[in-house]
Specification:
With about 220 residues, the chain is an alpha/beta fold. The chain is built from 6 helices and 9 strands. A 7-stranded mixed beta sheet has the order 3-2-1-4-5-9-8, with helices on both faces. A two-stranded antiparallel sheet has the order 6-7. Helix 4 (about 115-130) packs across helix 5. The radius of gyration is 17 Å and the shape is globular. The relative contact order is 0.14.
Amino acid sequence: SAYFINFYSKPGDTICDCFAGRGTNLLVGAALGRKVVGYDLSPQNLEAVRSACLEHTDITPDDLVLHHSDGTVLEEYKDQKDLFDLITSDPPFAFGVEPYGVDPRDLCLVKDLDGYISKMEECLKNLKRLVKPSCWSSKEFHPIVMKVGSSRRGEMGFIDLATEMEIIGRRLGLVLHDKVINILDSQFAMFNLSRCIDHRYTVKIHETNLVFVKY
């Protein structure tokens, strides 16, 4: 979080996290002097983020905007564009492998891949509208940073969400500016190893950050 926020924004800029979760990106942004906008479907998460930001960073209440709303649709900004300096997004895994709640808008409840991809395309289309334009010649970059993982589904095989999101981004006219791989030092992989051997596939030890810009 700190890497992307420091690299692509400056103090006073506005950053948005459309799947805030426990608020790591928002806390880092607040600590680094950014204005922050966050979305989550858990009011408990949002209240915890608000308290942590106001108690442990110098952000003011006016610069901290949290929406208990759908970060796919971003209804609150439906008539706006070119608004955010940086957008971060860490959407749930496909197939609902990590249930977070019962809100019908929750992506974790979308169990089929086509339905999930359709929702992510809607999300990325809205994010493209709301992020500020970048300019290669002046080296001004306002990216959408999406951290995505992968899933397995039996005979469907290995589903790489980075590939799916790159295809969506190209279809929407976004430019893939960068790709950064996170190596996961996960203890869970040790317990999953025997299953991987049985089914003849490797342990997943990475997530991918896709950095999209619009020109």
